[in-house]
Amino acid sequence: RKEVEQDPGPFNVPEGATVAFNCTYSNSASQSFFWYRQDCRKEPKLLMSVYSSGNEDGRFTAQLNRASQYISLLIRDSKLSDSATYLCVVREGAGGGNKLTFGTGTQLKVEL
Amino acid sequence: EAGVVQSPRYKIIEKKQPVAFWCNPISGHNTLYWYRQNLGQGPELLIRYENEEAVDDSQLPKDRFSAERLKGVDSTLKIQPAELGDSAVYLCASSSIYDGTGDGYTFGSGTRLTVV
Fold first, then answer.
1. How many CB atoms lie within 10 A of CB B108?
2. B18 cis-preceded (ω within 30 degrees of 0)
3. What is the mean pLDDT of residues A35-57?
4. Of A6, A76, A100, B1, which is least surrounded by CB within 10 A?
5. For residue B48, which of A49, A47, A100 has the smallest C-alpha distance?
6. Chain B environment of A89 (Cβ under 8 Å)
7. What was the pLDDT predicted at B99?
8. Which of B56, B102, B110 sits opposite A43 (nearest CB)?
9. Mean local confidence (pLDDT), A60-65
10. Contacts of A46 in chain B (CB under 8 A)
11. Contacts of B67 (CB under 8 A, 6+ apart)
12. Least Cα separation, residue B51 to chain A (angstroms)
């Protein structure tokens, strides 16, 4: 079983739609959680951190359920520019200097 | 501020040949990582350095892969000899252990290796 599991997609949605991605992780020692975005043939870049209380950044909302070891990302009012692969990421330590463990990524395609 | 710099961007080699990748992390970042990303997969850690010390190399195939970070700054990852299955993107990343949030983790643009 992979440490971080995601549905690989692709999710094909029309512009303006709301789309949700889910992720589960197996290591209960994980302390920090992130969503990264990766465009085609580019490196992964941090989209947002995920906090236990849930957090929002514009059209993006992230939720964490530690009891269920479950992370989600909600994108509202999808834009064409949101098309990318979204990687669920966990880390054992709370601070920098610890390795990140990545899911396989969920591919999103936003269409006209 | 310069980000994580990697070279070369692309490399095509024949199987059984050696290849080396170079990475220069963000200035002041004491932790450096090499990841490998296969097509359709997320990046997987190969080795992690704190300064010049390799603190996690459990996923590095040591029969053919080696890495060094001699002065605790830039790093080189080598494969000798390369196999067809080594075709992937090799990503370098850096971070600071003093970064309490961990948001400062930064990847380079990667080296895309094709073994033919």
1. 24
2. no
3. 94
4. B1
5. A100
6. 42
7. 73
8. B110
9. 97
10. 103, 105
11. B34, B46, B47, B49, B54, B57, B60, B75, B76, B77, B78
12. 10
Residue B102 clears pLDDT 70, i.e. is over it: no
Name residues whose C-beta falls within 8 Å of residue A107's C-beta, 6 or more positions apart in sequence. Answer: A8, A9, A10, A11, A84, A85
Of B40, B98, B110, the CB nearest to A96: B98
Compute the C-alpha angle B70/B74/B78, nearest 5°.
75
For chain B, helix (H) and strand (E) counts, in that order, are 0, 11
Q: Which residues pair with B28 in a beta bridge?
A: none
CA-nearest of B6, B76, B80, B25 to A43 is B6
Inter-chain residue contact A46 with B103, CB threshold 8 Å? yes
Q: Which residue among B31, B42, B108 sits closest to A103, beta carbon to beta carbon?
A: B42
Contact B61/B83 with Cβ under 8 angstroms?
A: no
A99 to B104: CB separation less than 8 angstroms, yes or no: no
CB-side neighbour CA atoms (13 Å) of B46: 26
Chain B residues closer than 8 Å to A42 by CB: 109
Greatest Cα pair distance in chain A: 42
* Burial class of residue A29 in the structure, from the number of CB atoms within 10 Å of its CB (0-12 exposed, 13-18 middle, 19+ buried): exposed
| CB contact (8 A) between residue A87 and residue B42 | yes
